[in-house]
Amino acid sequence: MTEVSVELEVDAPVEAVWEVVSEPRHLHHWERHVAKVRDLPAGPLHAGASYTAVMRFLRVSADVHVRILRWEPPRFAEFRLTGPLEAVVRTTLRPLRGGRTTLRHEVDYAFPLGPIGAIAARSLALVGGAQFALRRGALAQKREIEFRRSVED
User: What pTM, to 2 d.p., does this model score?
Assistant: First the structure.
């Protein structure tokens, strides 16, 4: 597996950051390959819950199944993704002085062999690679969190 990570500071408290980054309905806001999310549990998310992210790689759609391995609001979550993208995703939030938060995402991933995995790997390479895509997504999260905070103030 390949590992990529990104860490940045967000001008918002941990709870406000968690509210955004823990909501799978917003995945398509930050990850351009996510077309939609379906099969979400009816109640609050928790360890053991699962859902499906419908991903588009070039012009091919594929289901990626997501299972929550650890769910520790508002500080930590860990997910396992299976399908044409196999990954473990960890999100960690750490409070900083002045109501700021460190947001860290770590992703260990691989594209299994097969035609859809090959298309997914090629699609990711076309947008600059996994590290670039992860950073772009984290920066989009940061913008959304800080925008929400500015509107609330």
Answer: 0.85
